[in-house]
Specification:
The complex is a heterotetramer of chains A (147), B (181), C (498) and D (113). By secondary structure, chain B is mainly alpha-helical. Among the domains of chain B are: 70 residues; 54 residues, no CATH class. Chain B has seven helices and no strands. In chain B, helix 5 crosses helix 6. Chain B is extended and about 60 Å long. By secondary structure, chain C is an all-alpha fold. Chain C has 19 helices and two strands. The longest helix of chain C is centred in the middle third of the chain and has 32 residues. The radius of gyration of chain C is 22 Å and the shape is globular. Chain D has 113 residues and is mainly alpha-helical. Chain D has a single domain, classed as Orthogonal Bundle (Helix Hairpins). Chain D has four helices and no strands. The chains are: A mainly alpha (147), B mainly alpha (181), C mainly alpha (498), D mainly alpha (113). At the A-C interface, helix 4 of A face helix 1 of C.
């Protein structure tokens, strides 16, 4: 796969940032509006997939470090687990340990919930992108075997 | 209420088309149509969180499925047109629907949910957790442990896919491991 | 009380960090997973010895039972925790050398740790949807692990397993949906107290029971639903076969089914009869199918079906003796069937084949494997001083005591056929001398031997000291199941929100 | 009542595809349809007539009728599980195609019984 036409590439340059920003917005506002870590994470993954589909897998493999993806995934999982474990200091697993929950309907409210959303968003975004890359790259190597 | 039935009928037709069509790509697209129908259904049933999630997941699924099908499976695969398979499945599904309808009769009427535990969530979510979105307050505070399980499921399937997509599965004992791709 | 967290958090922590560790420190993988499993089994042993105030309910996030998710640690879950963590410790020790045959070990260890976390989570959970999630974690990691070699047969077996497994999961989930619609709660204690108001033969309860028996029956490979097991268990890497046969089918099949049917629904005459019939059929069909097998691991897989039948027969009686026998057999079967699968793995490792007709006279060249497999074979066929004998005896006595003479006789008959079948294995693999194939035999590394010896010692210890095991572990666990629904209602009243 | 039964019919269509179809991708599609039906069932169970979406805002505070938020939380989890299983299934299909050159299950049967 060598990517799509020039028009698609050009348009992608402008849209991909917006999609990424939208995904991040959804993650950060998960406790106020519909959406949340998971939906936002999928959107973030989709923005990268968009990039890969437009520019082709070969150039994407060069520019996106794969090591970073899988480390990001592990870190997301660890972060979420650690939020649960920090609750133990208050006496219970997954305790929402902030005493002051903050002003309702503002970004900094709801205790640990935004933090959890960020962890999940990181994890889901990198994880789903890793799945896509694994499936897509495999196809490429298979074609190489044939030739 | 009527719109619910309409969307449901659309989904049923979509399902029959998706299962019945010969070409793989067209049935994958029919599945996409069902998924969008489900998304509309979630909106009608007042579940905007799920509608967003279903929408983005549906897009991702379509991309993955199309990547899997494109260029493969060109040769059409005929199904076993055995009458017996069909008849036995028909009997099974008739029995299943009968049993299910008898069971459904004992449940509360549609639209009259009991809200035994959820009443607490609805009344106290904002007070106790500070989150305006009650669904988020459930998945990340009341039932945060479930969400840990959920992320673990996703992690498992990512590692599983990466493990299945290795180029070589087995090696000689003293051979060097291939670098992680 | 906070120490329970360790059973789920530690394997998850290991699983999340192994991909990072694996990049920098290859040998660290073995060390970390061995350390984690060793720590967990020490914890389980510690809990068994020093726990005096069971049952305990741990509210996660400090939300009391009907509101949040709660963990339940009682004698039954403690018993299952001990079994799971002990066997996983030995399996992980065995993997150190065995998995050198496969590439990317870090993915293997990550999936193994995830599977362990899933199993522990299923056993501890007191919430029905949470149980489903951890069941899925276990199931998904086992699909991936069955196909770990990525050979043609492995992929095919894994796909078959996956299709049947997802049907099972779908049935279980739709059962949970019906239960939620009926009771409007997910906590099992609360559910038990709500369901106490409706008669046991109401259509919805029967329908849900049928769904659960089908779903968990597929996971446990009871006979009409066993089609995936004889493919999936033999083709997996040997340590994974041991995990699947020894733990997975028991935890996500039998334990989950029994916990729901006994403690939430409270066993009634209909479910009891259905389970007894399924158990009897599995017991007989499994052993009959095993006779004709010449593949070492496939034969063991069919025997797993048959032994699962024993366990279900014992437990479904509902009498204290029957349940104790069933649970004891569950423990014993985990130990000796894992050991047998590890033996088969060693034979394959050394000679490169598991076809019984091609193997011969390995007794001299593989003394460790030979002796341990002798002990395991004698155990599974129920020869007196070893562990399998006592549990089978208890099950048969319980069957006769409950007046099920047909099933009792069947159990004895199946025991005899099992003995014959394992004599065949011993003769063909270790004691028959047609030609020496010593030249090609590879030496078994130390850790593999150590794991097998450890399990064999466990076999003998349980057999000799069956009395304290029964008193300390099995009988309290059986008591939990005998108490039925009342037990959960009591827990709700003690720990509930109001 | 009728709509719940229609949902069960949708479940059975997916089940039919999963059990009887010979094409691996069709099996995956069947599994997907089953997942949809299951998710919808939960939400239908939690619906309340005249209920509002369970999201509070300044002018929509406690006291109104809301639909049941708990099934929505469960379905969110269930969607993720479905996605994970489907991704794994698709990757198995691709590997099987690479080994056998076909998606036909009857030509893949190498293991007996």
């Amino acid at each position: 796969m060598n990517g799509m036409s020039l028009i698609v590439k050009r348009v992608t340059r402008y849209t991909v940032g917006l999609i990424l920003l939208y995904g991040i917005y959804i993650v950060f506002h998960g406790h106020l509006t519909p959406g949340g870590g998971f939906a936002g994470g999928v959107i973030i993954a989709l923005s990268f997939i968009h990039l890969v589909l437009a520019f082709g897998i070969r150039s994407a493999k060069k520019s996106i470090p794969k090591r970073l993806i899988s480390i990001g995934e592990s870190l997301g999982g660890l972060l979420f687990l650690c939020i649960g474990l920090i609750g133990l200091t208050g006496g219970f697993f997954f305790l929402n340990f902030f005493a002051k929950k903050g002003e309702p309907f503002t970004l900094l409210s709801a205790g640990t919930i935004p933090l959890c959303n960020i962890a999940i968003g990181l994890k889901v975004g990198t994880g789903l992108f890793a799945i896509f890359m694994a499936l897509a790259v495999f196809k490429l190597t298979k074609e190489e075997d044939k030739q | 209420m009527l719109e619910l039935y309409l969307v449901m009928a659309f989904m049923l037709i979509g399902a029959v088309v998706a299962v019945g069509l010969r070409g793989l790509l067209s049935s994958v697209i029919a599945v996409g149509a069902i998924g969008l129908g489900l998304c509309v259904m979630f909106l009608l049933l007042k579940a905007p969180d799920l509608a967003i999630t279903q929408l983005v997941v549906e897009i991702l699924m379509l991309i993955i499925l199309i990547r899997a099908t494109i260029g493969r499976g060109v040769s059409r695969i005929k199904d076993r047109s055995s009458v017996w398979v069909f008849i036995s499945f028909f009997i099974f599904s008739a029995a299943f629907i009968l049993a299910a309808s008898m069971a459904i009769k004992e449940l509360p009427m549609f639209g009259q949910e009991l809200m035994k535990v959820s009443k607490f969530y609805v009344d106290n979510a904002l007070l106790k957790t500070g989150a305006a979105n009650i669904v988020t307050s459930i998945i990340l505070d009341f039932r945060a442990y479930d969400t840990l399980g959920e992320t673990t499921v996703l992690f498992t399937s990512v590692i599983g896919v990466l493990a299945l997509m290795r180029r070589k599965g087995r090696k000689k004992i003293n051979e060097r491991d291939e670098p992680d791709s | 009380m906070n120490a329970i967290v360790v059973f789920v958090a530690l394997p998850l922590f290991a699983a999340f960090s192994l991909p990072i560790i694996g990049r920098f420190w290859k040998r660290g993988l073995d060390a970390v997973s061995l350390l984690v499993t060793a720590l967990l089994s020490l914890c389980a042993i510690y809990f068994v010895i020093f726990s005096n105030s069971l049952p305990q309910v741990y509210p996660i996030g400090f939300w009391p039972p009907p509101l949040g998710i709660s963990w339940l640690l009682d004698s039954l879950s403690l018993f299952m925790l001990l079994v799971i963590n002990l066997i996983t410790f030995f399996v992980s020790m065995y993997s150190i050398n065995y998995m050198e045959q496969y590439t990317s070990k870090w993915r293997y260890y990550t999936l193994l740790m995830l599977m362990l976390a899933g199993l522990n989570g299923v056993v501890l959970s007191g919430d029905i949807f949470n149980l489903y999630i951890f069941l899925e974690i276990t199931a998904i990691s086992s699909y991936a692990l069955v196909a770990f070699g990525t050979g043609a047969e492995e992929l095919e077996a894994s796909f078959k397993y996956m299709v049947l497994g997802s049907i099972a999961s779908a049935f279980i989930l739709i059962g949970i949906a019906f239960l939620y619609a009926k009771t409007s709660t997910l906590n099992m204690f609360d559910m038990a107290s709500v369901l106490a108001g409706s008669p046991f033969n109401s259509a919805s309860l029967l329908f849900v029971s049928a769904l659960f028996i089908t779903g968990f029956g597929i996971k446990a490979a009871l006979v009409p639903f066993h089609a995936w097991l004889p493919d999936a268990h033999p083709t997996a890497p040997a340590p994974i076969s041991a995990m699947l046969s020894g733990l997975v089918i028991k935890t996500i099949g039998i334990y989950a089914l029994v916990r729901i049917l006994f403690n939430v629904f409270s066993l009634n005459i209909i479910t009891s009869e259905i389970l007894l019939t399924l158990g009897g059929i599995s017991m007989f069909v499994g052993v009959i199918l095993a006779i004709g097998q010449w593949d070492f691991k496939r034969l063991l897989a069919y025997h797993s079906i048959s032994q699962i039948g024993y366990i279900i027969c014992g437990i479904s009686l509902g009498t204290p003796l029957g349940i104790a026998g069933g649970l004891f057999h569950l423990f014993n079967h985990s130990v000796f069937k894992s050991l047998l699968f590890l033996n088969a793995g060693s034979v394959e490792y050394a000679t490169g084949t598991r076809d019984l007709k091609k193997l011969s006279g390995l007794q001299e060249s593989m003394p460790c494997t030979s002796w341990t497999s002798m002990i395991a074979s004698l155990s599974i066929s129920g020869v007196p001083p070893l562990c399998g004998f006592w549990s089978k005896l208890i099950i048969i006595v319980a069957l006769f005591q409950a007046g099920k003479f047909f099933y009792g006789a069947l159990a004895i008959l199946v025991g005899i056929i099992t003995l014959a079948s394992f004599l065949k294995v011993q003769k063909y693999v270790f004691y028959r001398e047609i030609e020496k194939i010593t030249s090609k035999i590879r030496k078994i590394p130390a850790f593999m031997c150590l794991a097998m010896v450890g399990l064999a010692v466990l076999c003998i210890l349980i057999g000799v000291g069956f009395k304290p095991v029964l008193n300390k572990l099995i009988n309290p666990a059986a008591e939990v199941l005998v108490k039925g629904r009342g037990y959960f209602i009591e827990l709700l009243n003690t720990y509930g929100a109001n | 009542m009728i709509i719940l039964l229609m949902d069960i019919v949708l479940f059975l269509i997916g089940f039919y595809a999963l059990v009887t179809k010979r094409n691996l991708i069709k099996k995956v599609i069947g599994f997907g349809i089953m997942e949809y039906a299951l998710n919808l069932f939960f939400i239908l169970v939690g619906y309340r007539v005249e209920g509002q979406a369970p999201i509070l805002s300044q002018n929509n505070l406690i006291g109104d009728i809301f639909v049941d938020p708990l099934p929505q939380a469960l379905v969110l989890t269930s969607i993720v599980i479905g996605l994970g299983v489907t991704a794994l299934m698709v990757s198995l299909c691709i590997r099987l195609y690479q080994r056998y050159g076909t998606f036909d299950i009857d030509q893949i049967r190498r293991l007996k019984g």
